Amino acid sequence: MLRYILKRLLIAVPLIFGVLTLTFFIIRLAPGDPAAFFIQPGISPNVAEQIRQQYGLNDPLPVQYVKWLGNVLHGDFGRSFSRAQQPVIEVIAEALPVTMTIAVLTLVANFAFGIIIGVISAVKQNSFLDRFLTVTALFFYSMPEFWLALMMIILFALKWPLFPVSGLNEIGAESYGAFGFVMDRIWHLALPVTVLSINGSAGIARYVRGSMLEVIRQDYIRTARAKGLSERVVILKHALRNALLPVITLMGSSLPFIFSGALFIEVIFAFPGMGRVTVEAIFARDYPLIIANTFVSGVMIVFGNLLADVLYAVVDPRIKL
Amino acid sequence: MMMKTTKRLSRLFSISLLAAATLLTACSKSGGKGGAISGAARDTTLVIGMLGDADYLNPVIGASLTSSEISGLIYPGLLQGEFDTKTGLLNYLALEKRLRPSSGPDEKSPKGALAKTWTMSPDHRSITYILRDDAKWADGQPITSRDFKFTYKLYGNPVIASPRQQFLAELIGADKGAVDFDRAIETPNDTTLVFHFYKPVPEHLALFHTSLTPLPEHLWKNVKSAEFRESKLNQQPVGAGPYRLAAWNKQQTLTLSSSATCNLPKPGNIRRIIYRVIPDYTVRLAQLQTGDVDVVENVKPEDFAAVQKANKNVDIKTIGLRVYDYVGWQNIDGDHYNSTGKVRPHPLFGDPAVRRALTLAIDRQSIIDGYLGEYGVLAKTDISPSLKWAYDDSIKPYSYDPAQAVKLLEAAGWMPGPDGIRQKNGRKFSFVLYTNAGNARRNYACTIIQQNLREIGIDCKIEMQESNVFFQNLQERKLGAWMAGWSIGLEIDPLDVWGSDLKKSRFNFPGFINPRIDQLCELAKNKMRTEEARPYWIEYQKILHEQQPITFLYWIRETQGFSKRIQGAKLNISGTYYNIDDWTLKPSIAP
């Protein structure tokens, strides 16, 4: 198992490196450059050129690449062009925890809602309730997240002002004390996490339902019922455990999706997380920041997939890695 | 057995992750000395919603408008700028002297100026300022003439790459490639500051170009120019203005607090100003409705009714006219110019008569009525009606007249083809109209333009491009027709936009060449009094009106959402926050 994990991690190194190299060249092929912002009326004509000179954007591409490679191998991702020369590592260190919080909360909500809905659907198969839940799940599954987010804001922040519209905390939340601060944060996260998890849990619910239906038909479930166990014990203890095996593996593979969903959510709810950093970096053609973001999400995806495979092996003894 | 542990493990795992993440973000708060906002604190706190964060709170390198506005509250100015709404002229005030008498309602107090007075030498080659001796930086050190000389060297330093380098363009040595600071700026004592120019400079221009904001030399003198942009001092600016930076939570909030020691002119009235970064427009609007935010700029006209219905305490204030939209026509054959460097007229838009026809064919008023309503004004040229001293009232804007347009087109040889599209020498009058994606107003206008042109037998397709792509294509003259907008400067200086030397005129995207325009700009620049240049600008407007290098569509009155809590706000073309340090907040009635 350990050997397998190490092997996978070793394979990931050239993979991520390849992705970064590709990104390096692709973004430089895109029109515009970080200095384009300085070409506007009211800004001196020579500024753009001076900035290019300073950032080394006038060097031939191969030279730029070799320089960049040297820095990255030293672990230096450079400084952000568009964020006041802040070291890229710092920018990401500030943004990542925000996105991680959203991702983890969403993951928990995804599975909680998904499993509940899936189990109900499976147990009451083909009833009106099952049909209703299935249709509702499909409806939300196909909703674009940004639209859903705006609808939620209109409903739960404007029409019935139950939740704040945007931001991570109230202004001046520092004075609420640690507990108050965390509660305020959770209150601010309620809407965005709901939006993100509605989509994901609808998918998981379908998955749980399918896997549950398969398990319920097994012989040992009939045996359990024959023993005279209550329906609740049969479903929750015997069936659910086995039905959840394949679902657990979804945990790893849904991480990247949550990250991409966070992109919209962070822009709409004004959270200073990775999603917003990425979007803004791309529009500003902030090369060092784009590359570093690619690195982070690449690592996330590799880690997520590895986690999925390892979890599979852990929960299903039939699988040997 | 195995299952049990796994389940327990995964539960433990998720709980600990969750706790870790929440704590992490709770700890990652930075600089939370901003204090609290309770019901009572709300009466002393103003919240402004903005699209993006400031880049540098440093007048030498700050490039965005937001940065300049915030810097302007933190740092002192040599002179106080004033915009006279009656004439449209910029005025400069020192403590005991003003360039011209103020006539408008937007009078500024001169007490914010560091200069007591100034003298222009008779030959207009130097200007001498006498500074006040009681001005201090926020850390208690006196502000002296040396701070100015020191900072001007930073502005001129190519490694620092200040966006305001061209302010030094008239100083001694600038004509030879590098300013000779020791000869150009003299500081005989702490309160005397002298600038020397290599040529005679009109007084208003001298005042404009010598009043760049200073930095405190004693703090910055040891910062290397290569590390200037990275310096930690950029995070804790020390100024002398009505406000100080209290906390800066990047990409979230920026808090200013009134500076109690300020005497330039006085501590800001409102105790605390918080700038909140809210990138999404819809959400900014929602925050204005809920009252969480007091000011949101550029509220779209179609949203006024909803906002004011939802919240009676929101006012819409307008400023203008500074921004206009236009349809650009490539006057010269761009591909030919790019490959040979030679100029020849564009096959479709090279003829001024055809461009006039296009303007006549576009129903500009219906775009205004349909989208901007009372917040749009028909545009004739790029001299704003707000700049009354230069604006030509006598020019009649082209009316919507498709019949006349058809006449002009047929006179120029564009006849209807078998498919209804006009053609000339086998070439169809068909083109793509490009614009940048994500601007609802321009999308609306493009659709109407396409419809209008189809009615007179011109085929126009619309294509949206990402802003970076669009801008690069404009610069490379790859677009035949496009729709965009400009925001004008308050000093009329259109050489960058219309100059005949296409290599030098960075923004002459249409490739419009008319030597008389260059002459007029030059003549106007050399007038020692701004107002005396009026005849040149009148002629300039006539030329643009006749030649129609582009189709000027409409001026846009910018519309800012304001909470009615705010009192005493004066807005004008020079900015929404023109007198923000004088604003007051109406106390909320205690429940």
UniProtKB/TrEMBL annotation, chain A:
Transmembrane stretches, start-end: 9-30, 100-120, 132-158, 186-208, 244-270, 290-315
Is the keyword Ribonucleoprotein in the record? no
Q: Where in the cell is it found?
A: Cell membrane
For this UniProt record, give its keywords in alphabetical order, as a comma-separated list: Cell membrane, Membrane, Transmembrane, Transmembrane helix, Transport
- What InterPro entries does this protein map onto? BPD_transp_1_N (IPR045621), MetI-like (IPR000515), MetI-like_sf (IPR035906)
All residue ranges annotated as the ABC transmembrane type-1 domain in the record: 96-308
User: What is the protein's membrane topology class?
Assistant: Multi-pass membrane protein
Q: Which Pfam families match?
A: BPD_transp_1, BPD_transp_1_N
| CDD domains associated with the record | TM_PBP2
Primary location group: membrane
Domain of life of the organism encoding this protein? Bacteria
Q: Which Gene3D superfamilies match?
A: MetI-like
What SUPFAM superfamilies does its record include? Answer: MetI-like
Q: Name one GO cellular component term.
A: plasma membrane
GO biological process assignments: transmembrane transport
Q: What PANTHER family does the record point to?
A: ABC TRANSPORTER PERMEASE PROTEIN, DIPEPTIDE TRANSPORT SYSTEM PERMEASE PROTEIN DPPB-RELATED
Similarity-based family: Belongs to the binding-protein-dependent transport system permease family.
Identification of the protein by name:
Diguanylate cyclase
